[in-house]
Amino acid sequence: MAKTSRMTRTLGAAAATAALAFGGVVALPGAAQAADADRYYIQVGGTGPTKPAPECTFTYDPANAAHQLGDRAIKVCYPASWGPVIGPTGSLIDITTGQVHPEALTAPTYDTSVRIGIEETLKVAERTHRDHPDAQLTIVGYSQGAQVADEVLQKISRGETGIDKSQVDGKLYADPMQPGTGFGAVVPKGLGVPGVATSPGAGPTDFNGVPVTRYCINGDPVCDANLLNTPGYFELHPNYAEDNNAIERTMTEDSGNGVQWLNPDGTPAPPRA
Predict the structure, then answer these.
(1) DSSP secondary structure, the chain, as one string
(2) Are 158 and 201 in contact (CB under 8 A)?
(3) Is the peptide bond preceding residue 221 cis, with omega within 30 degrees of 0?
(4) If you average pLDDT over every residue of the chain, what do you get?
(5) pLDDT at 28
(6) How far apart are the first and last CA of the chain?
(7) pLDDT digits over 2-51, tens only?
(8) What pLDDT score does 196 carry?
(9) Mean per-residue pLDDT for 126-141?
(10) Among 6, 37, 171, 198, which residue's Cβ finds the most Cβ atoms within 10 Å?
(11) Do 256 and 207 contact (CB within 8 A), yes or no?
């Protein structure tokens, strides 16, 4: 089992109890970008343990290795936490080993982590654009990182940054803000525990001309929100980052617009009506 999968499944028990009261648009996979050497991938990882800078997140390691992205993969360093439940070394209590990670108690809350993530992702994207003004930027996010990337892509699409939106596209995996079916679309915006973890609301279906594809495994309650799908948080939500699964399969493809539904192994599923 991939390290990312094991850690995510461990974190799931604590996180899922916090809130899962959760339900497209379709984009088919595009041509590969792998030959495009002048493209940089700004990568925002999901909630869970982090690595020291500049590595920061485990989420994209299999995909980056498979596509040999090297320095074209630029990871965003941010807390990726859900204090006091999940911190930089893992969940407060690891349900697999029983190990206690007291750092979770003082870790930034989910909402604070997202806010910091947005700020840091914008800094990284703008710095990369300055260093490589003719390059294309693919903003990639998974889970909490997809929420961060969704917000950043909105800002770029509205012209609120120094980045030309024509040089940007996005890949969002398990986006809580997925319109219609994501947790943020089903749970009213702002509902939750104020100052700790609240619903972000739904993201846009269109990013003002910026190509953005959302990827969601059928039954993952983060982006396919439904109480009946709650077990999918443990069984499906960790899959995206595993070897030869969704992120590795699709990250270097051209972005479309809308939602690509996926099977548990990351292969395309039939579109929804």
Answers:
(1) --HHHHHHHHHHHHHHTT-------------B-TT-SSEEEEEE--SS---STTT--STTHHHHHHHT-GGGEEEPP----BTTTEETTEESB-TTT--B-GGGGGSPPHHHHHHHHHHHHHHHHHHHHHHSTT-EEEEEEETHHHHHHHHHHHHHHTT-SSS-GGGEEEEEES-TT-TTTSHHHHSPTT-EETTTEE------S-BTTB-EEEEEETT-TTTS--GGGTTHHHHTGGGGGSTTSHHHHHTTBPP-EEEEEE-TTSPBPPPP-
(2) no
(3) no
(4) 88
(5) 38
(6) 34
(7) 444 434 434 443 444 333 333 333 343 444 554 456 999 999 999 999 99
(8) 84
(9) 97
(10) 171
(11) no
pLDDT value, residue 90: 85
The highest-confidence range among 14-23, 97-106, 139-148, 183-192, by mean pLDDT, is 139-148
Average the pLDDT over 98-106 and give the result. 91
Residue 140: alpha-carbon gap to chain centroid: 7
Q: Which of 203, 211, 127 is nearest to 161 (CA)?
A: 127
| Predicted pLDDT of residue 78 | 98
- Distance between CA 243 and CA 233 in Å, rounded? 18
Q: Could you tell me if 27 and 260 are in contact, meaning their C-beta atoms sit under 8 angstroms apart?
A: yes
